[in-house]
Queue: 2 jobs
Job 1
Amino acid sequence: MHPTIDRQVTSLGQLTGAALRARYAEVFGEAARTSNKVWLIKRIAWRLQALAEGDLPERARLRAAQLAKDADLRLSPPKHSKTHASEDIPAARPGNLADERLPPPGTLLTRLYKGQTLQVRILLHGFEFGGVVYPSLSAVAKAITGSHCNGYLFFRLSKQGDTP
């Protein structure tokens, strides 16, 4: 890093919140929407370096935009236990524990999501997706999307007579 830029970045830690916001407006040409000092320091330091040493080439920016558009963004890893599915598929639905919206165990649920055909096998005690057994359809949907959503709605299952 250039010595002048290094000194400027080092001095950012000594500035007050108001001074950091003013410096942010100076280097970005717009007001900061936050007062978080750590975030402001990181962003200003990045911008100073980019201005001094050059930013990403346009080709890299376009590729990053393409990847971001197609990416299934996940901010945190799934919080499920990874037990592998058994080969045995029970033939009967459990008594009063099964939801009426579910077909019998052994059935494959198919869903098109982001251009991929996903298949989930209903087990007697859980749901298999990608070789992993999940305790609920919502857990499967969360593993797929990266965010919590209702599994019955995600797989378009509804009670008889309801419209999906």
Job 2
Amino acid sequence: MREQRTPRPVSGPRRAGARAGLIVLGIVAAAVLAPSAPVRRAVAPAKPPRPAPELARIRYWTAPDHTRLVFDLTGPPAGDPRYRFADSLTFEVYLPMTRKSPAVTTEFVGDSLVADVFPAVSDSGCAIRIRLQRATTPLGFFLAAVDGNPDRLVIDVPAPVNPEVEQAITRRVTELKQSKKLIVAIDAGHGGEDPGAIGYRRLQEADLTLAIAKKLKAQLDIMPGVSAVLTRSGDYFIPLRNRVDLARRYQADLLISIHCNASRDRDATGTEIYFLSLTGATDEAARSVAEKENAADLVGGVSPDTGDDLLSILFDLRQNDTIRRSSELAEVLIDAVGADSRLVTRGVKQAGFVVLKAPEIPSVLVETAFVTNPREAAILKDAQFQAKFAELLANGIETYKNQHLRANSN
């Protein structure tokens, strides 16, 4: 017979532990069986609506064949502009959801194409009235912010085709070729909406290059057997390809493109002369300079050339030996400008500059000095230095001409 044992009562501590365990299980069970409460998530604060863009400034430039009007905005446009003619000489642009700065008022242009520009506001946007001097059809487009330039609306007002002007250019070209002079196309880099490098004390490259280009033309025009033409004679924008086309239209024998160098290093100094490379830049610095100069079209609103006729350029350049002659011209010019003791010459280099791609014209690009260097900026601004630099370039061109005259006579 099995002995029955009476269970012993649980001692105090064990009993307390068991009771605690039951309480925990009860709490867990209640939590599981209870309906789940909605989870409260932090709501992100709503982003404030982007302020409407504001018409902040009106700028304009007059070129021989067009007037460019630029309307600077404080942000991307809020809607597509609408264009219409109120009458034959009044062109209107409406910018929806755009405010106007109180500082922006009527702009009196007064050139041969545009009389004035009057901006006005309404409840739903900004209206711009452009009074024309002659009947023509303006072209409008937006440019996104780039290289320190803001978002902007551009209106190009083209000059009507003038047969008399075209005939005068044709006569001038014929006279130049019949004179059998050496024709030098001088290209002042940048211009208009594209100021180029901004140097020490806000000096603009485009102003300096035009000043030197005009002085070089004056030097060459008094030189026997030489005549010069400018790709631009004022402060206006010309696409890079158009500069080459102008040189070719005048049947130039040489193309000299004038520029100023720039660097984040304020101590960078020196003069260098480039000719075209079809295979790559001489070094990283040369590649950087070419990219800076080639970016001028982006500032002015010219799309990159998707149909670059590189193969024909390669063929023509090699066929005509233009690169070799460009190299010779660059060497002669760097020796000539080295006569100025104020300059440090950095030698001759190669890079893929768009403005040097004239297949039949020996072409060089002259980086006169560093506009970002305080000392060189001061001499670049000096009219006497500009005249001296132009004189040295002219001496180099004369040396090159005489060398090739002797070579052709042999």
